[in-house]
Amino acid sequence: MDRINLGGSELEASRIVLGCMRISEMKTDALARHISTAIEHGINLFDHADIYGRGECERKFGKLLATELDRKDILIQSKCGIRHERKKDVQYYDLSKAYIIDAVDGILERLGTDYLDLLMLHRPDALMEPEEISEAFDRLHDTGKVRHFGLSNFNANQFDFVQQHTSHKLITNQVQFGPAAAHLVNSGMQANTPFEGAADRDGGLLEQSRLNDVTLQAWSPFHYGYFEGIIMDDPKFEKLNKVLEDIGQSHGITKNAAAIAWILRHPATMQTIVGTTDTSRLEDIAKAGNVRLSREEWYQIYATAGNMVP
Ligand SMILES: NC(=O)c1ccc[n+]([C@@H]2O[C@H](COP(=O)([O-])OP(=O)(O)OC[C@H]3O[C@@H](n4cnc5c(N)ncnc54)[C@H](OP(=O)(O)O)[C@@H]3O)[C@@H](O)[C@H]2O)c1
């Protein structure tokens, strides 16, 4: 599988990343097999966040790191900034300096490692002070706890806003993208039309990321809407499933892999973060890394997923 230098940095990471959001549900033996299968198929980057499984996902991964994995052979990224006060049942965002620094200490302790290759801020915080973010990044970098920084779910202006306050190049932006959640390309496709899809919801994030050599990481590739469900075998997406199956078959891959190949085909050279906990599905998906869809196939999947080609 191809590797890319994230955001032009020295971090060489696989185009397909294993998302660890659901691994707290896995038995330890199954998880060990899952991770080693990922590595055998060329996946070398693992995506975490402090809130996944309320810390349990990082803790489980940390146990494997202590016993079965070689830290220097893999890259680990995690995210912080989403807080949940269970007693008051309040969810909120916190990108204050103190919180970011504390959150990283918690992440490192749970993972049992002394550094993260990449830290991302999980979602924009309405109350964020970019000077504080910058100071937190300096401290984490100077103490060797974090090698690189990125953001997640930030629009283009928010991204620039943070970037202009820190000397560390922000190398990634992790955003939702997939055939049935294609808002990243929709407004560009419908540019100069009166259609609803022409509305620019992210400030031209796709072009901004390409211009500034920021790697986009596409999360939840099989989802539609905002966590409404997945496209696979959903009767609402019967035609899309058939097209993915047919295109997949012609390349010797499954329909899941065809959906991933669709993301990888975009010239922005994105990564995609897959969250499967099924090891045979992961093996199938990894084959997408060797397939390049034609322009016609790309558009056929795009349109069949319900996106407009005016
Ligand atoms: N930055 C953010 O805000 C953000 C938000 C969400 C997620 N993420 C990251 O993105 C990663 C991926 O997210 P995700 O797990 O939601 O995305 P996903 O890879 O699109 O979805 C995986 C889900 O779809 C199911 N699935 C896939 N193919 C299927 C099929 N053919 N039949 C039945 N079920 C199928 C999987 O079940 P199986 O396990 O059975 O395969 C799993 O429950 C996460 O692990 C996390 O690292 C980031």
Automatic annotation (TrEMBL):
Domain NADP-dependent oxidoreductase, residue spans: 15-301
Gene3D superfamilies cross-referenced by the UniProt entry: NADP-dependent oxidoreductase domain (3.20.20.100)
Top-level taxonomic group: Bacteria
GO CC, one annotated term: cytosol
CDD domains found in the cross-reference section: AKR_BsYcsN_EcYdhF-like
Identification of the protein by name: Aldo/keto reductase family oxidoreductase
InterPro entries: AKR_Detox_Biosynth, NAD(P)_OxRdtase_dom_sf, NADP_OxRdtase_dom
The organism of origin for this protein: Salinicoccus cyprini
